[in-house]
Amino acid sequence: GLERGAKNQFSTFSNFITTINQKKEGIGNRNSPTQLVIPNIKNVRDLPPICLDVRQKQRVSIDTLPQELKAPIPTEPSLPIRTKTVKDFQDDVEKAKSSGDWKAVHDFYSTTFDSFLEINAAFKKDTNSPFNTIEDSGINAKFVNVVYDALLNTPQDVQKSVLKGIINGLLQEWKGPRTKDDLRAYCILLQNPQFSNTSTYVIYAHLLRQIAALTEADHHFLVHWSKKISQRRFKQLVDRLLQFISLRLFPAKPEEFPPMVKCTWWIPSATKVLALFNAANSLISPPIISYTDFYNSTLDHIDLMEEYHNWQCYGNSHRFSFCQYPFIISIAAKKVIIQRDSEQQMISIARQSLVDKVSRRQKPDMNMLFLNVKVRRTYLVSDSLDELARKRGDLKKKLKVTFVGEAGLDMGGLTKEWFLLLIRQIFHPDYGMFTYHKDSHCHWFSSFKCDNYSEFRLVGALMGLAVYNSITLDIRFPPCCYKKLLSPPIVPCDHNTLVGICDVTLDDLFQIMPELAHGLSELLSYEGNVEEDFYSTFQVFQEEFGVIKSYNLKPNGDKIPVTNQNRKEYVQLYVDFLLNKSIYKQFAAFYYGFHSVCASYALLLLRPEEVEILVCGSPELDMSALQRSTQYEGYQKTDLTIRYFWDVVLGFSLDLQKKLLHFATGSDRVPVGGMADLNFKISKSETSTNWLPVAHTCFNQLCLPPYKNRKELKQKLIIGISNAEGFGLE
C-alpha cells in the first residue's frame, strides 16, 4: 500500500481535484451524477434490475440497447503508437529491482496513465480496431493485470505519478458523448489497486462519480465488459466498492475525508457503480460470485427504517436510499425491515380495532389485539382453515394459538407446535395437495383439478404468517416456487392479471423432476432424426385419479410433430406447462394466501432465494456458534456431560448435525439471525442414563440425561436423533 508519508501530497490532490465539479458545471451539467438515466427503449434484452421505483410498485428492469446502437457512434481519436509488450514490461521491472534504477518503469507508468488516450494506446489489444461491441472490450486484460500487480511494489514516486495521471484524465473537459475508448479507460481505472487505500478516496470518488453519470447506453457496455473480468479480480472490485461505502459511512479517521456535507454524492456514486457489477454478475449462469458477496453488513448499523421510509416516499427520485439498490442490503437487515414494517402494521390494525370498540361504547378486550386461532387437534386442518378464513381481517395481528380442551398458555411454544403439526399433515403424501419428489427431495404442487383450492390458500397464509411472526418452517419447496411467489411481488389491483407466472427454464425443472429434465435435455442434444425416432407431438399426457388426460401445448398440438427444428419450442412449452399452466389455480390460491399476510412493499427488496431463507431458514450450520449461544438448565457449561456432548456434536458429520438440529428444533435449518436466534437450551433430565435424550421442539429444548462417559452419550444421542420420525420414536 501507500506509505503514510505520501498523504500530504495526496491532500494537495484533494484541493486540486475539487475543480472537477466546477468544470462539470461549466459544461452545463449534461449528466446528473445522482441519477441513472433510464430511457424507454423497446424490443431489446433486459438487464437485471439495478434499482426500484416504488411509485410503480413493481420491479423495474433497466432496458438495454442492442449491440448495434442506432445513435451515431462518436469518432474515436487516433491513438499514440505504443509497442511495449507484457514481456518487455516484466523485463523492465526485473531490471529495476536488480539495479535499483526505476526510470524506465517510472516513464512507462507516468506516460500510460497520463490520459485516457494513453491508457488505450497501452492496453488496447489492437489500436486500429474500434471494438464497438458489447462482446469484446478490446482490453488486453493480461497486460492490465501484470501492470497493476507490479504497481504496489514500485517506489512511491512511481505510484504518485499514476495518481497524477488519473487526475489529469478526470479533469479533461468532455464535449459530446463518451467514446468507447473513454469507457475502456474507465473500465481499466476501476481495477487500480491503489484505490483500496483511504488516502486515494478523493480521486476514487470522482472516478466513480463520472462513471455513475454516464448514459444508459454506456452503462450497457460497461456491464457486459465487466462480466469478462476474472472471478478473483471481480470480487476485489466489489469488495473495494463495499469498503469505500463502509468507510465513508463510519470512517476510522474522519479527518482523512472531506466533511460529509460536501461529499454527499460519494456513497450514491459508489452504489450506482456497484449496481453495474451486480447487473453483470446476474447476466451469467452460474454467477461470477454469490449474490451474498454484494451484501454490506455495515448497513445493518444504520437507521434502516429511515432508509425504507425515504424509499417509500420518494421512490427513484433525486433522494438517495439504499433500498433503491436492495442487492447491497443483507438478508439480516431486510428481515429487520420486514419485521418492523410488520410490527407497525400489527400495531396500526390493533389500534384501529381498539378505537372501533370504544366508538361503539363496547368494553375493550385484550384478545382483540391478537389473531387468536382456536383449533382441535383431531380437526387441525379444517379448524385452521375455518379460523383463518373467518378472521381474514386480523391476519396482520400478533398470532396466538389455543388448542381446545388444553390449558396451555401460548408464549410462543404453542404457535410453533401449531405450525409444525399443520405443515406435517398438509404435506403428507396421503393428503394429496403436494407431490414429494424423492430424486430432488422437495415438494411440488399436485396438478389434480378440484372444486376448491382454499387449502392451497391456507398453505400460502401459513408461510406468510411464519414470516410475519418470525417462525422457521420445515418446508421443502424448490427455488422456482419462490420465484413464482414474487411474480409480481405486489398483488396487482386488477384481479384479471395473472399471478405466479414467471419465466421458467429446463434448469428449474431439474430442481424438481431431474429425471424428466434429463430426458428433455437428451432430446435437445439428440443427433438423429427426432421426428422419426421419437414420434412425439406437441401433446402431453397426465394421470389424474387413474384417468389419463391429454393436453395440447399449443393449438392443434396433437397434429404437430416434434422435429429437430422445433424441439426447443417443445421443451420450453412442456416446462412452462408443468411449472406454470398445469398448476395455475393451485399456485394462484397459494400466492394470494401468502400475500394476504405479507402484503408489503418490503417484498420488493427480496430475491427469491431470500424469501426461501426467511421462510425456511439457512442451510448453513455453525455448531460452534450454537455452542456459544446455548443456555443450560440444571447443567453448567463446564460439566463433564456437557463437555462430552459438544465434543461429540462438533465431531459429527454434517448429516448427523442436521439430524440433531431437526430433532431438537423441528427443522434442520438456521434462522436468518444465525444460531443465536434459536435460543437453544439443554436441560438436565433426572432420569436413568439408560434413557435416550428427549426434545421439546416447540421450545428448542434438549433434555439430556447425565451420561457418565463419552461413548455412552454418543451412542444414545445417535439412536435418538436417527429414530425420531415415522415408525421410530415420537
From TrEMBL:
One of its GO terms (molecular function) is ligase activity. PROSITE patterns: HECT (PS50237). It is an enzyme of class 2 (transferase). Its EC number is 2.3.2.26. InterPro entries: E3A/B/C-like (IPR044611), HECT_dom (IPR000569), Hect_E3_ubiquitin_ligase (IPR035983). Keywords: Ligase, Phosphoprotein, Transferase, Ubl conjugation pathway. It comes from the Eukaryota. The active site is at residue 698. Pfam families: HECT. It catalyses: S-ubiquitinyl-[E2 ubiquitin-conjugating enzyme]-L-cysteine + [acceptor protein]-L-lysine = [E2 ubiquitin-conjugating enzyme]-L-cysteine + N(6)-ubiquitinyl-[acceptor protein]-L-lysine. Residues 391-730 form the HECT domain. GO terms for biological process: protein polyubiquitination. Pathway: Protein modification; protein ubiquitination. E3 ubiquitin-protein ligase which accepts ubiquitin from an E2 ubiquitin-conjugating enzyme in the form of a thioester and then directly transfers the ubiquitin to targeted substrates. This is Probable E3 ubiquitin-protein ligase HECTD2. It comes from Cochlearius cochlearius (Boat-billed heron). The gene is Hectd2.
